[in-house]
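Posted in: Structural Biology > Protein-Ligand Complexes

Title: Requesting predicted complex, zinc ion in pocket

I'd be grateful if someone could produce the 3D structure tokens for the following input. Sequence and ligand are given below.
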Amino acid sequence: MEFEKLYIQAKNTLNPRDISPFISAGSVASAILTDKGKVYLGVCIDTACSLGMCAERNAVANMITNGECKITKLVCLSSTGEILTPCGACREYLMQLHKTNGEMEILKSLDNFATVSLNELLPDWWGKKQINV
Ligand SMILES: [Zn+2]
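-- Reply #1 --
Done. Output follows.
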């Protein structure tokens, strides 16, 4: 699947809204493509007291619920259309899921749909030896 299609699916998932006086959601959306060709979507959930969840991890939760863990492509964008790369916590989370996830391509710019790998975003990852057992 092309990054353009993943980008469009993520963009269509954006839905910024307040859910309660403490929680808002949908101002960031993510689409992940698995090795089986399935797409899983997620939005950010922002809360008081730092209990929220990034869009990427929400998409991953959806993927895990459906029995998958190997990601080949990831797109994340804000409601202003800005392409985002995963935060440090998400990079770690994505890396721990599967030994080949470091090879996933992550969209970093709409200019020619430039990408970066998770390995490039998280060099010298501490768990490489353990996950390759
Ligand atoms: Zn994150």
